[in-house]
């Protein structure tokens, strides 16, 4: 079940931890994994345990809220759609945040659990890289504004090491990181 939580400091948004400069403290790998798994569990709950199931349609770092213990809770259901559990998708006008929208949803207007899973993958990449889904400053060095395209380029160039947030230094399990990427 989902819960509301009392918070002394208020809700913390995940994206605050994504734009840190080298040397700044941020979430360690253990906390980032907790956020990733918690968000995945939330998405599973929406898709598998709600009737009708809920398609979020705008899963992004800004919609993953963290409590005082950095436990994640999915938020902002303004674009969400209720879908009969027997249906595989809902056809709608495309909505969501650029850089997080699944290509098949963008081209067909058919939103589904799969599109939500694609959207979930972008905050995962943000957690690993410490970068935003869209970063215009990358244009100074390359053509890839979207984080996903940037990561694909690094993978093609066998530069997987360059994808990991430098603020993590070496304080992470490489196999876990590789699995997430």
UniProtKB/TrEMBL annotation:
Q: Which residues form a coiled coil?
A: none
Catalytic reactions on record: L-threonyl-[protein] + ATP = O-phospho-L-threonyl-[protein] + ADP + H(+); L-seryl-[protein] + ATP = O-phospho-L-seryl-[protein] + ADP + H(+)
GO molecular function, a single term: protein serine/threonine kinase activity
Name the SMART domains on file.
S_TKc
Query: Record's superkingdom?
Result: Eukaryota
The reply on keyword tRNA-binding is: no
User: Any idea which UniProt keywords this protein has?
Assistant: ATP-binding, Kinase, Nucleotide-binding, Serine/threonine-protein kinase, Signal, Transferase
Protein location: Membrane
Q: What's the protein here called?
A: non-specific serine/threonine protein kinase
Q: Does the keyword Protease apply?
A: no
> Which Pfam families does this UniProt record tie to the protein?
Pkinase
Q: What is its main location?
A: membrane
Gene Ontology annotations for the cellular component aspect, listed alphabetically: membrane
Q: Which organism is it from?
A: Turnera subulata
- Where in this chain does the record put each Protein kinase domain? 1-181
Q: What is its EC number?
A: 2.7.11.1
Topology in membrane: Single-pass type I membrane protein
């Amino acid at each position: 079940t989902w819960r509301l939580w009392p918070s002394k400091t208020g809700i913390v948004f995940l994206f605050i931890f994504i734009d840190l400069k080298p040397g700044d403290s941020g979430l360690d790998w253990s906390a980032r994994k907790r956020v990733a798994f918690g968000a995945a569990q939330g998405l599973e709950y929406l898709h598998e345990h709600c009737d009708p199931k809920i398609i979020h349609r705008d899963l992004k770092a800004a919609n993953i809220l963290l409590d005082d213990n950095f436990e994640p809770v999915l938020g902002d259901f303004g674009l969400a759609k209720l879908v009969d559990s027997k249906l595989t998708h809902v056809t709608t006008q495309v909505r969501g945040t650029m850089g997080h929208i699944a290509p098949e949803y963008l081209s067909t207007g058919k939103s589904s659990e799969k599109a939500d899973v694609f959207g979930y993958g972008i905050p995962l990449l943000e957690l690993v890289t410490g970068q935003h889904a869209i970063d215009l400053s990358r244009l100074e060095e390359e053509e890839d504004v979207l984080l996903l395209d940037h990561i694909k380029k690094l993978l093609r160039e066998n530069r997987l090491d360059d994808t990991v947030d430098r603020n993590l230094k070496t304080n992470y399990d490489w196999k876990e990181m590789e699995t997430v990427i």
